[in-house]
């Protein structure tokens, strides 16, 4: 993993009062994203608007595609053309991207997709919040694979985690999702963008050996293959089919038994390095509230009130949702009385918590439909019940 | 050097194809291989730096072309070759990007991408092998199947209207449009050569026999019969009005070069327009 | 045959990669000089490949090479072949 200084042209150093969507665009530009293929969809469109306004001054391409199928296909093409790329979308667009997310996983493409979640299913609640795509992010495309998903809870974190998303995607050659939500996407707050010389990013893992020896999917020591770009004389082939080191299709079980474990293991085996958690007062806690995105900010109120009422409550915020912090949940499950998991859906991440806790501690879900955030009292009620 | 190796080194396809992947998967009598040869002939004649030519395919029989050409080659998802090529071209404008795929891939599932890439005048060349059906999956009816022709999902004959690909391409904004049959070897080569030399969105439709499915279901004989039939039914009409190019079942095939016009490409327009509006503040792209 | 001046027709030497052939007979059918014919023999895949019946008649038009969907046949120039096999295989 090679770290390099960013191109200062993309960095809008200073303090800004902007919303989460804009912050995602600024994060991408700061990280060196110079190709954005997008399609308008509420509540994420502002990111595309911001990018289209900024990119002519930075040097790069913004293209509004005919649909989200086209957006992600163009992004994968652009990565093979040598660019860092991103897009932004919301539920319906995310659904349309699923097939080529699979292609990106199979081709091992570094790219970033921000999903500013809204209420679903279907057209659902275009202008109102939701956290209903969390499982889709993990399982949405067919087949076995792993991705990385981050969940910012503020505009500042939208900026920071978008840069981090690019770094993770380049490190592991995998699509990374920034799973924010309408509330954070449309929330205006102060976002501090540091000077360009203070931002380091992970360089693409460029191949530097002899041209005729290049094998697109030969694993390096760290388990990640090297990349090249089209036009540099490697004359390589890549496909969405199960393939060998040369990138040639090999359609049999033996090849699949090499490719699929690799796609999964490169993420799972590095989970400790990838996972970012924010914990508070977790030592000695009897209840741990696990949350992410906007819900973690709502939960603070409930946690404060519970503490006032004498309940020992710790919090665990998932800045990384996928890969799931299985180890940490297992550790905590042995020590605590119960987990409380509020989320704006009818039970997604709570299922993972339950799975990892494996009966050692129950997970109390605080379900909520899309459209609005929890009433902190609803979370408090469940904390109290869990503490009984 | 063994005699065999010496011969191989003289094989004119060496350098253009991944010989380690030949024989290919196409059926005996299928015309796709012939179109690939015409393409490599055009590449030779064009004198392009082959390191700067990329081929993008989607899914289907013709979708496998990307796997055989010894260029930077991408086998993508069904219908998405055109937007993939769009991203590839925009990310690296030095490339000559060729989409080599079938009628079902480009005009069935990928039709929307095709018309938008044409509208933008994206600088890519589309070589569409039209075999009138979805062959890889077993001969199902397609957007190009002529009325009355039989297909595995139109067992009583097709009753839908078919797309006329040149008409669609011209209407959407393509700057170069030609149609040939795979037996028009030199003409296909010449068209590809012209289109490679021309910036802008080009479509070359090549009508090709599908022996195993389309011919068998419709009792049209073997590859040779079909090849001859298409050729005999062809009438060359350069510059023909694209509104008149519908294909009827076993009817006349109007072939030729129909459109060849000049128009700025997407990147030309982007740079020109942004410079006009933003002046010195605009960071020029890809020049 | 009458030639004008020193112009001599180029003669071709045909190379058939028998095991790559799928027996479609396109080359046999479209050879303008009837140089090729389908053989009775089977190749490894069980197809009948063509054989060169009359190489002297070959005028190096390369139509067989271009039409072959299997990339299984190609032509080189005969003189070159005899002059110690050097130089480009094609003009």
Q: What's the structural blueprint in terms of helices and strands?
A:
The complex is a heterotrimer of chains A (388), B (287) and C (91).
Chain A: E1 3-5, E2 14-19, H1 20-31, E3 35-38, H2 45-58, E4 61-64, H3 68-80, E5 85-89, H4 91-107, E6 111-119, E7 125-129, H5 134-139, E8 148-150, H6 155-172, E9 175-181, H7 182-185, E10 188-193, E11 200-202, E12 237-239, H8 253-268, H9 271-274, E13 277-280, E14 287-291, H10 294-308, E15 313-318, E16 320-322, H11 326-335, E17 338-342, H12 349-357, E18 363-366, H13 376-387
Chain B: H1 3-10, H2 32-46, E1 53-57, H3 65-68, E2 72-75, H4 81-91, E3 96-102, H5 103-109, H6 111-119, E4 124-130, H7 165-172, E5 176-181, H8 185-196, E6 202-207, H9 211-217, H10 223-232, E7 234-236, E8 253-260, H11 266-278
Parallel strand pairs in B: 1-2, 1-3, 3-4, 4-6, 5-6, 7-8
Antiparallel strand pairs in B: 5-8
Helix pairs in contact in B: 2-8, 5-6, 6-7
Chain C: E1 12-16, H1 26-30, E2 36-38, E3 50-52, H2 63-67, E4 73-77, H3 78-82
Antiparallel strand pairs in C: 1-4, 2-3
Main beta sheet strand tally, sense and closure of chain A? 8 strands, mixed
Estimate percent helicity of chain A.
25-40%
Which architecture name of the largest domain in chain A does CATH use?
Answer: 3-Layer(aba) Sandwich
The two chains with the largest interface, and their residue counts, are: A-B, 47 and 43 residues
The main β sheet of chain B shows up as:
8 strands, mixed
Adjacency order of strands in the biggest sheet of chain B: 2-1-3-4-6-5-8-7
Number of helices of chain B: 11
Order of helices and strands of chain B: HHEHEHEHHEHEHEHHEEH
The gross shape of chain A turns out to be globular
Got a strand count of chain A?
A: 18
Helix content of chain B: 25-40%
Q: Indicate the low-confidence ranges of chain B by residue numbers.
A: none
Short synopsis of the structure:
Helices cover 36% and strands 16% of the residues of chain B.
């Amino acid at each position: 993993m090679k770290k390099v200084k960013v191109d200062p042209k993309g960095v809008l150093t200073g303090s800004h009062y902007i919303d989460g969507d804009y912050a995602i665009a600024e994060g991408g530009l700061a990280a060196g994203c110079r190709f954005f293929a997008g399609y308008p969809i509420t509540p994420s469109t502002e990111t595309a608007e911001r990018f289209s306004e900024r990119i002519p001054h930075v040097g790069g391409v913004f293209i509004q595609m005919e649909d989200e199928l086209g957006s992600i296909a163009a992004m994968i093409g652009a990565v093979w053309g040598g660019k860092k790329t991103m897009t932004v979308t919301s539920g319906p667009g995310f659904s349309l991207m699923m097939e080529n997310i699979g292609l990106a996983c199979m081709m091992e493409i570094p790219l970033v997709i921000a999903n500013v979640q809204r209420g679903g299913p279907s057209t659902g609640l275009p202008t109102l919040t939701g956290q209903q795509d969390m499982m889709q992010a993990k399982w949405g495309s067919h087949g076995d694979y792993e991705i990385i998903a981050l969940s910012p809870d503020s505009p500042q974190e939208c900026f920071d985690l978008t840069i981090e998303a690019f770094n993770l995607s380049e490190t592991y050659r995998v699509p990374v999702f920034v799973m924010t939500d309408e509330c954070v996407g449309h929330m205006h707050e102060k976002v501090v963008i540091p000077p360009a010389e203070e931002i380091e990013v992970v360089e693409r893992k460029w191949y530097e050996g002899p041209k005729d020896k290049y094998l697109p999917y030969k694993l390096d020591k760290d388990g990640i293959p090297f990349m090249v770009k089209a036009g540099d004389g490697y004359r390589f082939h890549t496909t969405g089919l199960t393939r060998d080191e040369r990138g040639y299709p090999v359609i049999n079980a033996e090849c699949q038994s090499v490719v699929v474990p690799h796609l999964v293991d490169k993420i799972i085996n590095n989970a400790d390095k990838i996972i970012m958690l924010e914990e508070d007062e977790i030592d000695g806690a009897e209840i741990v509230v696990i949350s992410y995105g906007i819900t973690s900010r709502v939960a603070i109120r409930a946690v404060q009130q519970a503490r006032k009422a004498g309940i020992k409550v710790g919090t665990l915020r998932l800045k990384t949702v996928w890969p799931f912090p299985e180890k940490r949940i297992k550790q905590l499950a042995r020590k605590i009385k119960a987990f409380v998991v509020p989320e704006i859906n009818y039970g997604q991440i709570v299922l993972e918590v339950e799975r990892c806790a494996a009966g050692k501690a129950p997970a109390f879900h605080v379900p909520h439909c899309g459209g609005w955030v929890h009433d902190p009292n609803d979370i408090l009620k469940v904390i109290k019940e869990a503490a009984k | 050097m063994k005699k065999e190796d010496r011969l191989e080194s003289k094989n004119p396809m060496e350098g253009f194809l991944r010989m380690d992947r030949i024989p290919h998967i196409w059926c005996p009598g299928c015309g796709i291989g012939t179109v690939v040869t015409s393409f490599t002939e055009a590449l030779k004649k064009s004198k392009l730096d082959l390191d700067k030519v990329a081929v993008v395919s989607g899914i289907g029989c013709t979708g496998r072309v990307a796997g055989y050409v010894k260029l930077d080659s991408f086998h993508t998802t069904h219908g998405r070759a055109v937007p993939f090529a769009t991203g590839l071209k925009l990310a690296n404008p030095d490339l000559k990007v060729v989409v080599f795929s079938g009628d079902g891939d480009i005009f069935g599932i990928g039709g929307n991408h095709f018309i938008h890439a044409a509208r933008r005048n994206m600088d890519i060349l589309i070589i569409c092998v039209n075999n009138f059906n979805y062959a890889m999956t077993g001969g199902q009816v397609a957007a190009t199947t002529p009325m009355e022709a039989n297909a595995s999902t139109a067992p009583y004959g097709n009753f839908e209207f078919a797309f006329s690909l040149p008409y669609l391409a011209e209407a959407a904004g393509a700057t170069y449009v030609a149609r040939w049959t795979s037996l028009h070897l030199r003409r296909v080569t010449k068209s590809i050569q012209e289109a490679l030399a021309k910036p802008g969105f080009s479509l070359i439709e090549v009508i090709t026999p599908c022996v195993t499915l389309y011919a068998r279901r419709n009792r049209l004989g073997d590859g040779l019969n079909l090849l001859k039939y298409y050729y005999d039914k062809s009438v060359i009409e350069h510059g023909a009005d694209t509104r008149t190019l519908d294909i009827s079942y076993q009817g006349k095939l109007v072939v030729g070069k129909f459109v060849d016009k000049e128009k700025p490409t997407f990147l030309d327009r982007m740079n020109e327009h942004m410079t006009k509006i933003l002046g010195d503040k605009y960071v020029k792209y890809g020049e | 045959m009458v030639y004008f001046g020193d112009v001599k027709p180029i003669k071709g030497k045909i190379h058939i990669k028998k095991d790559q052939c799928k027996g479609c007979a396109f080359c046999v059918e479209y050879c303008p000089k009837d140089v090729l014919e389908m053989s009775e023999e089977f190749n490894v895949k069980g197809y009948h490949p063509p054989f060169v019946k009359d190489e002297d008649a070959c005028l190096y038009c390369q139509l067989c090479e271009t039409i072959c969907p299997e990339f299984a046949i190609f032509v080189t120039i005969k003189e070159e072949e005899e002059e110690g096999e050097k130089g480009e295989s094609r003009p």
